[in-house]
Design a protein that fits this description.
Shape: globular
Structural class: alpha+beta
Order of helices and strands: HHHEEHEHHHHHHHEHEHHHHHEHEEHHH
Number of helices: 21
CATH topology of the largest domain: 2-methylcitrate dehydratase PrpD
CATH architecture of the largest domain: Orthogonal Bundle
CATH class of the largest domain: Mainly Alpha
Strand content: 5-15%
Strand order of the largest sheet: 6-5-7-8
């Protein structure tokens, strides 16, 4: 058995942002910008935030000097990692990695930022750490592989994310390869996350991602202080890959390590919902515009999805056709397509339409099926096929590469527009623009303190939990 853990640990310990290809550097900055916008708005709007804030205060996590973006209060490092991680995932608008079936940024970036505040790390170090965290998170997911892990009921964003968070925090702390292995061994004792949230739209999906960010920070901190972690955390007999999936491919975790970047296979979301529905939303908005469709003209709709997409957004159909809360809506293919057909738009504010009569009238008309053509494209493409019957005709649109996918990535202008759509309501447009500039210029920053300060609202804003 190859020494997978040791090889990954050595890579993370030695990773230097300045030596990375220019396109990897740029994409990393863009991914940080995307996640920061999610955190700021999640602190303001997500319905689970008041309980998270109250519990963090009760647990003593709100008594420190670390920042939560979108909040003017200060928290402990653990509290900041936890809350920034949970808030990043609360809108379901954060980045995705198709082959790994996860969201790598939400556990990794908050751990890196919290660690950076602890030790005063500079921006180049933080960006180096974030790349390390993405590579660990995504490479473990594809080595499981993610589909088998999902079938066992695990949530890979949380499970794999704990190791990515440990890698990120460990790189910020300057851990050597041996200590990085210890950090992974400690994270192994904390890797958890269940898909049972799908049964009732539970908020545990958000919680467990934030908790994994905190777990990774804790693992790296323990390793920094000399605490011994389990060896062979990834490939061992009771290691992560063998314990959490039936047929792992450990060698896949190190294939092309340092030469091929899984970070570059990460997509960003133009819509705040499960990624499996996005291609069909693209199709719905396009067909509505091209045909001038009115909602009342729609007779029936069929969403063609891959198998994993059916699991998350298509079945059971009766449940997906009757979403009652935001989480239900985020994982309802019929709802997001209804919004696209009814309004030509699917944004965070679309969840105010959960009980809208026009949207409700479309929901029972939308069926979800596993489509062989779409399945054949997965996981290389997060494709979708929409068939809309209207005016007595079937209008079919296959979207192979959804907007935001690595091969159809958002431009900086589009990312900034998404960022302002999230952050302006909390920070004001001018401060949000300053925060965006700070993120894009992070590599030259002496520390992250200025960036984190810009993430605190100065204007009167209604914060959840206040």
């Amino acid at each position: 058995m190859a020494a997978i853990t040791a090889e990954i640990a050595a890579y993370c310990a030695g990773l230097d942002f300045a030596s990375l290809p220019a396109e990897v550097q740029e994409r990393t900055r863009f991914l940080v910008l995307d996640l920061v916008g999610n955190i700021v708005r999640g602190r303001h709007d997500a319905e689970s935030t008041p309980a998270l804030i109250a519990a963090s205060r009760a647990l003593g996590l709100a008594a420190g000097g670390s920042a939560v973006l979108g909040d003017s209060a200060r928290y402990t490092p653990a509290g900041a990692a936890f809350l920034n991680g949970a808030l990043a995932h609360s809108l379901d608008f954060d980045d995705t990695h198709a082959a790994g079936t996860l969201h790598p940024g939400a556990p990794v970036i908050p751990a890196a930022l919290a660690a950076a505040e602890m030790v005063g790390a500079d921006g180049r170090t933080v960006l180096s750490a974030i790349v390390a965290g993405y590579e660990v998170t995504c490479r473990l997911a594809v080595a499981l592989p993610g589909g088998d892990h999902y079938d066992r009921g695990y949530h890979p964003t949380a499970t794999c994310g704990a190791f990515g968070a440990a890698a990120a925090a460990g790189r910020v702390f300057g851990l050597d390869a041996a200590a990085m292995q210890d950090a992974f061994g400690i994270a192994l004792s904390q890797a958890a996350g269940s898909l049972q949230f799908l049964a009732n739209g539970a908020w545990t999906k958000r919680f467990q991602v934030g908790w994994s960010a905190m777990n990774g920070l804790a693992a790296a901190t323990l390793a920094r202080e000399g605490f011994r972690g389990a060896s062979e955390a990834f490939e061992g007999k009771a290691g992560f890959l063998r314990a959490y999936a039936p047929n792992p491919q450990p060698e896949r975790a190190v294939r092309g390590l340092g030469q091929e970047f899984e970070l570059m296979q990460t997509a960003v979301k133009p819509y705040p919902s499960c990624r499996y529905g996005h291609a069909c939303v693209d199709a719905a908005i396009a067909l509505r515009g091209e045909l001038g469709l009115k909602p009342e003209e729609v007779e029936s709709v069929t969403m063609g999805l891959p198998n994993k997409g059916m699991l998350l957004v298509g079945a059971p159909l009766a449940y997906k056709q009757n979403p009652q809360n935001v989480v239900d809506g985020q994982f309802s293919g019929p709802f997001v397509v209804s919004c696209g057909l009814a309004t030509g738009h699917m944004g965070w504010d679309s969840y105010a339409l959960l009980q809208d009569p026009t949207v409700r009238s479309l929901l029972p008309k939308i069926n979800c099926v596993e489509d062989p053509e779409v399945q054949a494209l997965f996981p290389d493409y997060m494709a979708g096929k929409l068939t809309v019957r209207a005016r007595g005709q079937d209008h079919v649109r296959l979207v192979k590469v959804a907007k935001g996918e690595p091969d159809n990535f958002l431009t900086e202008a589009e990312l900034r527009a998404k960022f302002h759509g999230l952050a302006d309501a909390v920070l004001g447009a001018e401060r949000a623009a300053q925060l965006a500039d700070a993120v894009i210029g992070l590599e030259k920053a002496a520390d992250v303190n200025g960036l984190m300060r810009l993430g605190a609202p100065m204007m009167a804003a209604r914060l959840a939990g206040e």
